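Re: How this chain folds, sequence and tokenised backbone to follow
How to read it: Take the token row as a discrete description of the fold.
Start of record: The labelled sequence and token lines come straight after this line.
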Amino acid sequence: MRYQISGKQIDIGEALQTHVQTEIEEVIAKYPGRPTEAIVVFSRDAHEYCCEAVVRLSTGLTVQATAKATEIYAAFDACNAKMEKQLRRYKRRLKDHHRDRSQPVELFAGASYILAASEDADAEEPETLQPIIIAEMEAQVPSLSVGEAVMQMELAGAPVLVFRNEKQDRGINIVYRRDDGNIGWIDPHTKT
């Protein structure tokens, strides 16, 4: 497994890196899905340390967590505990999907854009209704079943996930968290 442990304007010592690797290996060893990459970033926010961790599994799932504490080790331990809780919560589902999936999740490249927000609602109407693009990035669109997509969205703590539905081969689908707490699924298809 590849580790990337870094700090934003913080010096990360060897002892902390060793602690992070050991603890992540212990947590991941309990659950199915071989980890392929772990990215841990430490930063400082006023008097607190912030730890953001992302672990990618060979099954295509990504587990991520964030935690803050006044001590850097405590921030990591809280973040690691959140990741362990997420994995424990989905252990049965991870095992089921792991058995069904013999190949890793296929990822497709897609374009992702950040659009400028309208600063003033009272301002004059712009000449064109085309939004201003601030940034262009590459996004990865996984090929998943609907169940895997919901699980991936919840593991990542994301409000929405765009994926390619591999079961029905219907192209791009979306799952999202609704205001009432349920999960919505958008499955565009043409009527024949």
Observations:
- The helical segments are 14-29, 72-89, 91-100, 146-156.
- The chain is about 30% helix and 40% strand.
- Strands lie at 2-7, 35-45, 48-57, 62-69, 107-115, 133-144, 160-165, 172-177, 183-186.
- The chain has a mean pLDDT of 81.
